[in-house]
Structures are given as structure tokens and as C-alpha cells.
Amino acid sequence: MLRNAFYAQSGGVTAVINATAAGVIETARAHPDRIGRVLAGRNGIIGALTEDLIDTSRESPEAVAALRHTPAGAFGSCRYKLKGLDENRAEFERLIEVFRAHDIGYFFYNGGGDSADTAWKVSRLGAETGYPLVGVGIPKTVDNDLPITDNCPGFGSVAKYVAVSIREAAFDVASMALTSTKVFVLEVMGRHAGWIAAAGGLAAEHEDDAPQIILFPEIPFDEDAFLARVEEVVERVGYCAIVVSEGLRNRDGRFLSEAGTRDAFGHAQLGGVAPVVANLVKEKHGYKFHWAVADYLQRSARHIASRVDVEQAYALGRASVEMALQGKNATMPVIVRKSDAPYEWEVGEASLSDVANVEKKMPREFIGPDGFSITDECRRYLRPLIQGEDYPPFEGGLPRYVRLRNVAVEKKLPAYSLS
Amino acid sequence: MLRNAFYAQSGGVTAVINATAAGVIETARAHPDRIGRVLAGRNGIIGALTEDLIDTSRESPEAVAALRHTPAGAFGSCRYKLKGLDENRAEFERLIEVFRAHDIGYFFYNGGGDSADTAWKVSRLGAETGYPLVGVGIPKTVDNDLPITDNCPGFGSVAKYVAVSIREAAFDVASMALTSTKVFVLEVMGRHAGWIAAAGGLAAEHEDDAPQIILFPEIPFDEDAFLARVEEVVERVGYCAIVVSEGLRNRDGRFLSEAGTRDAFGHAQLGGVAPVVANLVKEKHGYKFHWAVADYLQRSARHIASRVDVEQAYALGRASVEMALQGKNATMPVIVRKSDAPYEWEVGEASLSDVANVEKKMPREFIGPDGFSITDECRRYLRPLIQGEDYPPFEGGLPRYVRLRNVAVEKKLPAYSLS
To answer: Does A192 share its domain with A287?
Structure first.
């Protein structure tokens, strides 16, 4: 039976979520007997609710292939969490109504933990209401906090960006430290977990390599221990490079970024934990400092994406279509690690019910006993994820990223207001 | 006559200053009849004053070749400005004394405007004192503010980094803007001139492409005009990406970064103009914002260096040795532009006296009449400088940068204290 497919990107975008989209669309196109068109939600699930669907069949094979090397969300993503099924059943019923109007038999939802939950609910609703639908979640999140899967597409590329960047900046600092900056602080993402900060530790391969200090959200900030460590490192190594997670908290659980700065008018914080940490060092030791905040640069840096990450992102997109065609409702393709070195992996399957609302924490044994470093076990886990480069094509000195036509499908239903 | 050469790196380092070092050392090695050893100053000119010289002949050809793809200063650099010749003649005489002790007949000083001045003074002193010395300055500065030369090695790679980064981050913002961040601010270097901020403008190739606003140090910050422009862009495009120079000043000449933040204890600023600008937008329009500060990441990002920049950096190192061998004292090799498109250039010569203490400003006609954009003339100048990629080798997912042995030459003179 020929049905259409729906695909949407959800939540914070990554350097490789479009590679997953390419995997979905190219695989769907390879099964013209089973899948008609892939309709994408403009701005994620909002596009489904408002019946703002993009007809991806209007995109050339070249444009779809170029998604593989284009960062961010080509169809638009959104931060919009559907309420519970009991709380706002109307919203879910609207989804089914839109799917019915466009003969959508396959639902692909590409996101993190919340999205897995939504995909699971949609899958159940299809079954409950007798509307024939196969719902598949596809993992994506730089936070690397989904359970079951070895890692989450998007994370490996951020990890690589952070490790490359702290290595490069530390070379800079090391060469100037005698008369200039002695302490450098790089702030990275990870509000709730230290996965990204930990990845910075991959840059350190020998004793005293940068970063010499990592500040994790899992470890309450011990100002005295930190300042003592900074001094010790500067005395021994000549400089100190620090990676700090945006989620760093003090002992009473407050974010340091919020404890810190006020503007000239006394208004609350402007954000940024790096300047707060750098300033503490300056106050205590008087060292000249510099700090950087990578922010969106880290998760959009397709130019230095991890090849493993790109391959996995694409493979999960492809697998999600293959699973859907096998009728595997309420499932999610996941990465299964077979071996650390050489890194071997394959695509496995999880049930969405096991993924939804379960957060994978970074194991405590990944953080060194000093609280400022990563362990060998952590390295073994992380190292494979940043392997390989996968440079986008460049033209005129700049990466040539694709912008899709994103032609809208004609609407068939009355307008709908988001609740 | 066989003499040794001295080479030192000065001031802020770049992604390609070691490419220049490779050009110097490899070219010197190709003339074993004229140049004995290249002795490098450890930590720049301080190494010459303190007789802390590195014997580069102890480095393998492979290590020297790897300098071409290694960022920052392999021998150490410093921020140490020699006083005037009249003010502290002793310091210059100490240099000559060290050079005499190690039979140094060639002096290569790789830096910006101050360094050209120092190189010029050293050149003169050699002539005055009858010590046979050929002094050559080699341009380097991300600030791109040296006169005569078409551009300064180091700048092209920062320019590329900034243009690539704002393009990537803007793809991210564009795909999330409906429900999330609408305004993104990227802070870049350039305390006195807007060259680096202008380079961000290369990412915009079509109308309404990011960055839609550039804030230059040359244009006093007009808060009302800026806020109106942000709103207009967000209304029309859906989001607004901004590149701001760290040197942005308000109308009475104060840096915005200093006007801005105070920490919780009321201590003066932590630095950073991006959060100040972003917060103004938030206060006025309520838009959700994000900001990034690239800091050292931009000037150390060898992984995304401009190939043109690397080639020019190397070529200038090579030319400096060739000029020295021709006895061209008090000179500096420079880049001469022959054509914009295709970009054609050759190495020319300047007199250090014409370079020293002359700052090249960004022409006003490079900034659009609105004060927030670059002109076509600016694009024509900048575009060639970011052409081509020159990826370093990677191993295990990370760039393989060289660390030299940096073996010290035995000292022959009494110790010397820096004044």
C-alpha cells in the first residue's frame, strides 16, 4: 500500500540532523512502491498541527544529498512540547486529522527525549483510534542524554569541535603565557550533564596537556579547590586552560552563570559562566585571563563535524524508514557499540516506551577523582565518536550549504490555532 | 660568509605565523653555504635579550615542515615592546652583544607594527655600531593594520573563521527562530579596526543573508538606530544575526564592553561586548537571544585556515631569507595584489622605515552608508583572502600539531635582567 510519510525535526538543532533527514528522504525515495512523498513539518511539529507541510518531493536529488553536509534544521525546528495525551487530547487528534488528510502512514520524529515521548504517544494514538500509522522516533541531541543508544547524533560533532577548539586555543595561550594571558576559559554547552565538557578532555593526551581543568555540572563548584588547582597548574605548566560547562553550579545548586554578573543598571545576569570563573581567578591570583563562549558555534560547526557522527546520523535516518516499512511501530533505531577500538557499531532497535522520559546521566566514574578531569574509561567511550573528518564542499572560501525550496503542500483542513 | 640567523615571533600569535617560521627555516636550510643555524628567540625578543636561544637545527625536517600546519607560536611569543633607542640604548646594545656572541648576521622579526619598528631600530644599530647585520621584518597580525602590504598573514584565516562561524550559527538560529532564539550576537576581535568584523560580512551573499548587522569600531554605536534595525530585520527575515567588534564604542568614545557589566560584588566589567549588545535587544524588544565570544578560538583556528593565508605566510618567510641573503637591510617583504578576481599576488619589498609606526585604517568606503554593512569594494578586497582550505593532518579525530624540541643553545654571556 502506498502511503505518504511525515518527517519533522524537533528541539535544538545540530550539525548533522540534516544528514538524518537525507537518510530518511533518500531511503523513502528508494521505495516508491511503498512511500509516496515525504512531507516535512515546517518548524517541526508545529507544521503538523498547523498543516504547514513541506513537499520534499519538490527537492532535487542533489539538494537532498547536500543535506548530508548542511548544518541546522533545513525544514525548521521548534521548541514546542505537546501536552500529555489526557491533558490535551485535542492536539494529538489534530495530528491524526492532518495525517489522515494527507494520507500519512509513517511518522518520523527526529529529536531528543521529549520528542521520543511525543512519537510514542502518536504511535499509541494511531493504534487506539484505528488510524493506520507507524510511528518511529529518530535520536538527535547534542546533550547525548538518550538511553539505550550508544550515543546521540549531534553529540560527536560538538565533542570534536570542543576538543579541537580547546587544543588550538591552548597552543595560543601556551605561546604567549610568559608575558600575556595565563588562564583561558572556554564555556561549552551542557546545562544538565557534562558530556560536552568531558569531550574537551580528549584534547589532553599527555600529562599537563590542555585542558588542565574541566568544570562539570555534576560536580558542585569548589572555589577553593579550583583556585588552588589553577595556581598549581600555572606554576608547573606556565598557563592553564579550562573548559567549563554552562551548567556549573555552586554548592547550593545555583548556576554560577546566574550568581555572577549584573549590568550597569543592576539588571540581572547577561549569562555566561566563563567570565565569572575567569574573574574569580583574576581576583585571587591576578593572572591575566581570556575567555570564550562557543554557544551556537559549537553545535552548528558542520565544517569540523565528526565523520562517525555524520555516518551514524545518516544511518539512523535510513534505518528508521526501513523499520517503518517493516511495520515496527513505536520504535527507535539506536547505535549499538560492538567494540571501542577499532570502533565498531551497528544499528539496533529500541522501543519508544523505553526511551521516552529516561535521561542518560554521565557515569560518575567518567569523572576523575579530583573532579576536574576525565578518566580512561571516559576516553574509551568518547574517543570513537570524534573520529574522522567529513568536510563540506567549499566555494569562494565558504562552505556551500544548501537551502531547500521548501514548497508548501496545499492545505485541506480548516486553520488551527496552537494552544 | 657563513653566519647564523636569528628568528623571533612577536605579539599576538596567529593560525599561520608558524608557516612563516617554516618558510624562514626551510629556506635558510637550503643555503648552508650562507646561513649556519637559525636560532630562535624563546618567547620572542625576550629570548634574545636573555640569551635564551633555541637551536632550530635540532629539529627534524618533518618537524619544521609540520610548522606549516601548526597554529600559534612554536618558539613562544611575547608582548614586550623595546623602548626607544635613545631611551634605552642599553637594551639594543644587549641585542647586538648576544648576536655577536652567537655570530648572528641575519635578524628576522615576525610581527606587527611595533615589531617593524623594533626591527628597523635593530637594523640601524647594526649599521651604526659597525656590527654587520641584515635586519628584516616579516609581517604578521590578525589586525591587518600594517601599511603597504596588501594584507597581513594571520588576518585571512581569522576572516575565514569568522565568516564560516557566523554562517553556520545563523543557519542554526534561522531554523529555530519561530519558537526560540531570534537574535544572535557573535563578538570578534579588532580593538581598533573593523577588519575582522567586516570579514563576517562575507557570509552574506544574498539580500537578508546573515549577518544582517555588523557593528564596527569605526562607527560610534547608535543605540536607537541599531535597535530599530534589529526589529526591522527580525520582522522581515524572522531572525537577526549580528557580528560585533570588541572595539565597539559609544558616542563619547568609551568601549561598550567597559560600559556594561559589573559582577555581583559591583566589581568592574568582566569583558565582552556581545552580552551587552544582546541585553540591549532583550530589554527593548524582548527577543530571546544568544551570544558567543570567539576570542582566541578565532586566531588559533588552524583547522579552518585560509589556504591563501597559509601560502602567503610561508612565502613571506621564504622571501625574508632571500632578501637577507641579498643584503637588503631594514626591509620587509610584503604582499602585492595584482588582481582581485582571479586573485593574483606576488611578494614585493618595503622599507621598514615606511612600515614602522604607520597604522592602516579600514577605509570608510568599505563600510556601507547605513554603518551596519560592508560595501562591494570591501568584498572585492576581502574575498580573495579567505580562498581555499588547507586542512592540517588529523589523527584520532584531532589535528596533529607539532611540538618542537626547542633545545636551548649554550649561553656564552653573563645573565641579563629585563628592565
So the answer is: yes
Q: Do A172 and B399 touch (CB under 8 A)?
A: no
What letter would DSSP give residue B255? B
Mean of all residue pLDDT scores within chain B = 94
Distance CA B136, CA A358 (A): 64
Residue A228 Cα distances to A69, A223, A236, angstroms = 44, 8, 12
- By CB neighbour count within 10 A (0-12 exposed, 13-18 middle, 19+ buried), where does B259 fall? middle
Look at A398 and B391 and tell me if their CB atoms are within 8 Å: no
Whether A322 has a pLDDT exceeding 80, the answer reads yes
**C-alpha cell at position A367:** 569523572
Residues of B forming the active site:
143
Residues A220 and A108 in one domain: no
Which pLDDT tens digit goes with each residue over B247-284? 999 999 999 887 655 444 444 445 689 999 999 999 99
Task: List, in order, residues 6 or more apart from A326 with CB less than 8 Å away.
Answer: none
Q: Which of B9, B16, B293, B403 to probe the A interface (max A CBs under 10 A)?
A: B293
What mean pLDDT do residues A366-375 have?
A: 98
Same domain (yes/no): A246, A326: no
ipTM of the predicted structure? Answer: 0.97
Residues 4-63 of B with CB under 8 A from A: 9, 12-13, 15, 43, 46
Of A393, A390, A363, residue with least CA distance to A378? A363
How does residue A263 score in pLDDT terms, banded at 50, 70 and 90?
Answer: very low
- pLDDT (mean) for A91-113: 95
In a domain, A380, yes or no: no
The answer to whether residues B216 and B194 touch, using CB atoms and an 8 Å cutoff, is yes
Strands B104-111 and B183-188: unpaired
Flag whether residue A164 sits within 8 Å of chain B, measured between CB atoms. yes
- Return d(Cα B312, Cα B314) in angstroms, integer: 5
Residue A375 lies in a domain: no
Rounded mean pLDDT of B374-384? Answer: 98
**Confidence band, pLDDT 50/70/90 cuts, at residue A270:** low
Answer yes or no: A209 catalytic.
no
C-alpha cell at A290: 581570556
Q: Which of A143, A145, A150, A309 is catalytic?
A: A143
| Best mutation target, A297, A379, A389, to test chain B (most B CBs within 10 A) | A297
In 3-state terms chain A splits into helix, strand, coil percentages (rounded to 5) of 40, 20, 40
Chain B residue numbers touching A398 (CB-CB < 8 A):
160, 163-164, 167, 202-203, 386
* Residue A329: pLDDT band with limits 50, 70, 90: very high
Task: Please tell me the predicted confidence (pLDDT) of residue B265.
Answer: 44
Sign of CA dihedral A125, A128, A131, A132: positive
Say if the Cβ atoms of B173 and A46 lie within 8 Å: no
* CATH code of A82's domain: 3.40.50.450
**Which structural domain, as residue segments, surrounds residue A338?**
3-140+305-356+391-399
Instruction: Chain B: give the shortest CA distance to residue A129, in Å.
Output: 30
B103 CA: distance to closest CA in chain A (Å): 26
Looking at B300, B326, B344, the residue that finishes a domain is B300
Tell me the CATH number at B238. Answer: 3.40.50.460
Q: By the CB < 8 Å criterion, does B199 face chain A?
A: no
- pLDDT of A269 above 50: no
Q: What is the reported pLDDT for B263?
A: 45
Q: Are residues B231 and B330 in the same domain?
A: no
pLDDT at position B383 over 70 = yes
B135 and B159 together in one domain: no
- pLDDT class of B1 with cuts at 50, 70, 90: confident
Residue A300 touches chain B, beta carbons under 8 Å = yes
Q: What are the residues facing B54 on neighbouring strands?
A: B40, B408
- Look at residue A138 in the predicted model and tell me its pLDDT: 98
